[in-house]
Amino acid sequence: MTAAPPPGAGTGAAEVPGAVEDPGGVEVPADVEHPGGGALAAGLAPRPGSEPGRAAGPERGPVERLDGLLGRPVSMRALALLRVLVGPLAALHLWSVAGEAHRAASGAATFTEPYASWYPVLSPQAQAAVLTAGALAALALAVGWHSRPAAVATFAAVAYHLGLSTTHVHNNRAFLAVVLAGLAVGPCGRELSVDSWRRRRRGRPPRPTNAPGWPLWLLRFEASALYGASGLSKLVDPDWFGGTVTWLRAVHHRGELAASPLPGWLLDVLVDRDFHTYAAKVVVLTELFVAVGLWWPPVRRAAVWVAVAFHVAIQLSASVEVFSYLAIAALVIWATPSVRDRVLVIDPTAARHRRLAAAVRALDWLARFRVVPGRRGDPLRVHDRDGTTVTGGPALVLVLSRLPLTAWPALPALLAPPVRRSRRSRRPGPAGPMDPVDPVGGTGRSAGDAA
Amino acid sequence: MALVVVVQLAFVARGYRSDHAELGWQMFPEASTWRADIVRVTADGRHLPVDRGWDGYRWSALVTGRGLGRPDVRHHADAGLDSQLAFLGAALDWVADHTPRDDETLYLQATVTAWHNDDAPTVEVMRSAEREEAR
To answer: How far is it, in rounded angstroms, from Cα A112 to Cα A100?
Structure first.
């Protein structure tokens, strides 16, 4: 595979004849194509709003810089996708606890321990009604119908239930409340939503999909705090780091393991004390790696990949309600918050290319790509945001590694030598127009983004 | 945002001292287990196991969740022993407060055997507050 540098890489749209500008940071339908033969140029055209870059200015103090970081407009696409994914999980959770309240309403009172004597403890019937309303709000959140009020109502229902009793609080539920709080304070309903659809139908202009990034950074902080605190608590506990805890858990569940379809040799390994001496360290270091790696652009994709595997393992080995799905869904917040900054150029006469284009339109939930028609007979081509052009198989791998549903199996393929060799970089300079905006995660060049 | 960061870090630090470690994100903290024999201690000194039921009450109906419904069975302490025993203590008080038909129980008492990870078992006696109804 060869990497063909695009003509005019790093130049602005105005300098490239036939350049097609994206609608610019506002809602871009996933099936937008850029006809007119300006494929390469379209791929390189900086889009107003989505990539404001790093303004050079006078020296600023740390507080001013932090303020600028928090207020810098970035794409809220990840927040919108998180809303879609978390809504059903919140609905499931609230439906479940509403069922418990319904059962309590029909029987005798059971033990609870409110956090405060002044906390408003409604009757079980009223609690069931509030939680059911919260579940409905969560469904509205998922589809983006009155997104902000729905997010606030869903958060309020989840938080109210947690406050009712210490016995209601589990880490997974608390994290759900935290994520919902992040959605409630951020503009999560301007894309992928009924709200935006209704706005279009009424002929009103779309609301800006870029907004100050602080809700996103806040969620990133909370997500990494989750992994970091969990890993740290295990690191400082000799029983955990030494393997006693995981070994005992396996021993306590020996009967269930034996009844599972696991092969005998694996069962022997799982209850072997020496195995856990090493396995526990892997678990602890995995959590710490994810906590730190998500912030560090060069390893962010690896951290995302490891986190997904980690949560799948947890889901298979423990009962954690909706936590595994929630934590995996929350990984979308680590995608670089700029949209349509990669161009997928297809040969419109090739059936395989058209199929891929259709798949990208359907699965590009984070709006990573613009799909444009190229010349007949050209290989598949991706112009990355850093000026790199990749063709053929490596381009396919690159595309799949950036789609949420296919990223996990595709990411390891990025390490394959042909794919690595194919990424011939054309770097426009330290602050070029193609730099993605990820003020927290760096510019994201070459490996700086998660998706 | 700075406030949220500080508060979150404070919760993480608090998690090392508090029973329930809310927002402390201490996942799967222990492999500890526990069991308890719970009795009603009457004003005249009798010890009556709660699993027999009394005055129309049953422990397993009054206390559900967090593994508290069958304390006589050895359970995993999901969120750690400190958290589990704090729940048990609160449950003893709650039952003492929410069984108005019972006019003979002075307090509830749990004899708890706890296994912190692979340490030797420890035995602890926990009591509810004394009840006015039996005085």
So the answer is: 13
Chains A and B form CB pairs within 8 A to the count of 99
- Angle formed by the axes of helices B2-14 and A214-235, nearest 10°: 20
∠ at Cα A289 (A288, A294), nearest 5°? 110
**Distance (Å, rounded) from C-alpha A180 to C-alpha A156?**
9
pTM above 0.90, yes or no: no
- State whether B29 and A246 contact (CB < 8 Å): no
Question: DSSP assignment of B63-82, as one string?
Answer: S-STT-S-TTS-EE-TT-HH
Contact B25 A229 (CB under 8 A): yes
Q: Given an 8 Å threshold on Cβ–Cβ distance, is B62 in contact with A111?
A: yes
Separation between Cα atoms, residue A95 and residue A88, nearest integer Å = 10
Return the closest-CA partner of residue A145 out of A64, A89, A199: A199
Which is more confidently placed, B91 or A54? B91
Contact list in B for residue A226 (CB cut-off 8 A) is 25
> pLDDT digits over A200-237, tens only?
999 999 999 999 999 999 999 999 999 999 999 999 99
Asked if pLDDT for residue A437 goes beyond 70, the answer is no
B101 contacts B57 by C-beta, under 8 angstroms: yes
Tokens 């005249």 locate to B44
Q: Which of A92-96, A157-161, A443-447 has the lowest mean pLDDT?
A: A443-447
The one-letter code for the residue type at A279 is A
Gap between the Cα atoms of B22 and A166, Å rounded: 9
CB A450 within 8 A of CB A336: yes
User: Cβ distance A69 to A440 under 8 Å?
Assistant: yes
- Residue A23 contacts residue A416 (beta carbons within 8 Å): no
Round to whole Å and give the CA distance between A381 and A389: 7
- Indicate if the pLDDT at residue A450 is higher than 60: no
- Is A317 in the B-facing interface, judged by CB distances under 8 Å? no
pLDDT in tens, B77-123: 989 999 999 999 999 999 999 999 999 999 999 999 999 999 999 99
CA A214 vs CA A319, A326, A337, B1: distances in Å: 33, 21, 12, 7
B62 φ/ψ angles, rounded to the nearest 5 degrees: -80, -35
What ipTM goes with this model? 0.92
Question: Over 80: is that where the pLDDT of A35 sits?
Answer: no
**HSE-up of residue A17 (Cα within 13 Å, Cβ side):** 0
The H-or-E segment that residue B109 falls in is: strand B105-115
What separation in angstroms does the CA of B116 have from each of A99, A242, A248, B79, B85? Answer: 34, 15, 11, 12, 12
Give the best residue of A171, A218, A319 to mutate against chain B (max B CB count within 10 A).
A171
DSSP for A273-306, written as a single string: HHHHHHHHHHHHHHHHHHHHHTTSGGGHHHHHHH
Does B114 contact A at CB distance below 8 Å?
no
